[in-house]
């Protein structure tokens, strides 16, 4: 089983990708992120086998310290 985090700032793209991936029973979309901060928050909390990341997505960082 592959646990996937989808990170993209376009909700319609995330939804479309989830719909396509539903046909693959060995892939689970475990979480989604709409910005870079959500990606970082998610990977600090959970483990994923793969992150599908939009490289043009904005990152809004909050300090963790």
Count of alpha/pi helices: 2
Beta-strand segment tally: 3
How much strand content do the residues show? Answer: 25-35%
Q: Provide the structure class.
A: alpha/beta
* Strand and helix order: EHEHE
Low-confidence stretches: none
Helix content: 25-40%
Task: Walk me through the structure.
There is one protein chain. This protein has helices at 11-21, 36-45, and strands at residues 2-7, 27-33, 50-53. By secondary structure, it is an alpha/beta fold. The mean pLDDT is 91.
List the keywords.
65 residues, alpha/beta, three-stranded parallel beta sheet, 2 helices
List the helices and strands and how they pair.
Layout: E1 2-7, H1 11-21, E2 27-33, H2 36-45, E3 50-53
Parallel strand pairs: 1-2, 1-3
Write a brief caption for the model.
The chain has 65 residues and is α/β, with parallel strands linked by helices.
């Amino acid at each position: 089983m592959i646990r996937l985090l989808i990170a993209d700032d376009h909700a319609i793209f995330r939804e479309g990708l989830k719909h396509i991936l539903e046909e693959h029973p060995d892939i689970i979309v475990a979480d989604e992120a709409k910005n870079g901060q959500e990606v970082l928050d998610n990977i600090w909390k959970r483990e994923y086998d793969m992150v599908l990341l939009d490289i043009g997505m904005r990152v809004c960082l909050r300090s963790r310290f």
